[in-house]
Amino acid sequence: MSEKTVIVGLSGGVDSSVAALLLKQRGYRVTGLFMKNWEDDDDDAYCAARQDLLDAMSVADVLGIDVEVVNFAAEYRERVFAEFLREYRAGRTPNPDVLCNSEIKFKAFLDYALTLGADCIATGHYAEVRESAGRYRLLKAGDGNKDQSYFLYRLNQAQLAKTLFPLARLDKREVRKIAADAGLHVAVKKDSTGICFIGERPFKAFLSRYLPPQKGEIRRLDDDRLLGEHDGLMYHTLGQRKGLRIGGLKESGKPGGEHAAWFVAGKDMARNVLYVVQGHDHPALLRDRLVARQLSWIAGEAPRPHWVYAAKPRYRGEDAPCALASVADASCVLDFAQPQWALTPGQSVVLYEGQICLGGGIIESAENIAEKGKLA
Asked: Which one of 35, 167, 319, 345 is separated from 226 by 20 to 30 angstroms, measured CA to CA?
């Protein structure tokens, strides 16, 4: 049993609800906090915030805990959304969930909770925190399919010291069963997907409200042949297949063969040209070295260079063996054992040593190294 006070970020979903339930069962003094992070256009057509709040209040009532509603919309717009727009304007593809975790859920929320006298905060993330001799490690969750350590790699020692992840060793089926057994109606609630402030609305339509369309040419990378027109480079990301509005090109002998699908392979920001290639496995989409900047290391210092680690250059990708070729304060270089598909500037690459999340950075660029066999 614990005498500590914990404030749980209640989102109205099943994960945070079960997190609160488990902590109460363990003897913590539990309070719920519902964060409102977006209010520019939170109509019911696309934004589920109103229903999420009702669900959070209902769960709190069943659990017998208080719940407070706090508006972090100003902080979110300044710290997360403004950076989101800057990155897209620069032709990169950011991941706002990573920034939201470090700046809102584990900074603004944590700071607010501490002013209320909380000993720590908790969320429904699938990840694990372990402490040893006063140092904190972030580990992958027990459920590999739900592990969210990728989105938490920017957390530091001070944040981890005040954070609990009650779902660390549970899988999703267990979480839903616990909720159902406790009589929580959110046991069957569908998980939210996509970027929180966009919801279910079309991405391009949303982005065009903030970044006006700027038409330009679509050209084939192999020979600079003109193929069509795009509405704006910011609407496209490396490896994208859908939404290009160019048909198959029947030309045998080219990478991908006849009528192979087109994929975005690059952007020329100065000329406003979108470059595409035919075929998923076109060489232009494969890179075995990347440079990352805006580094963040959970231990407070960089991992040892020239060692073999594993990296995730995208959330749903497999762990890819790599060597930390070099690391400095401003950037690091990762060399992969096998070429990686569509390494995308603006996305996060997260480094692991076994189950331990070491940290990571934002992909700046990618290329192919001249010499192979660097990994023993």
From this structure: 345
- Please tell me the chain's helix, strand, coil percentages from 3-state DSSP, rounded to the nearest 5: 25, 30, 45
Active site residue 100: yes
Domain 213-281 has CATH 1.10.3720.10: no
Q: What is d(CA 234, CA 344) in angstroms, rounded to the nearest whole number?
A: 13
Alpha carbon distances (Å) from 312 to 114, 187, 352: 33, 30, 8
Domain 5-188 class, CATH top level: alpha beta
| In the chain, domain spans | 5-188, 213-281, 286-367
Q: What is the pLDDT of residue 201?
A: 72
341 to 78, 268, 273, 281, 289: CA distances (angstroms): 33, 20, 21, 8, 11
Per-block mean pLDDT, blocks of 10 residues, the chain (376 long): 89 97 97 90 63 95 97 94 95 94 96 97 98 96 95 98 98 97 96 72 87 96 96 95 79 56 96 97 97 97 95 93 95 97 97 98 92 45
CA 54 to chain centre: 26
24: helix, coil or strand?
Answer: helix
Determine the angle formed by the axes of helices 14-25 and 49-63, rounding to 10 degrees: 20
Active-site annotation holder among 196, 322, 332, 357: 196
CATH of segment(s) 286-367: 2.40.30.10
Half-sphere exposure of 308 (CA within 13 A, CB side): 10
- Which candidate in 47, 100, 322, 357 is catalytic? 100
The closest of 49, 51, 95, 99 to 76, measured between CA atoms, is 99
Distance between CA atoms of residues 86 and 69, nearest Å? 29
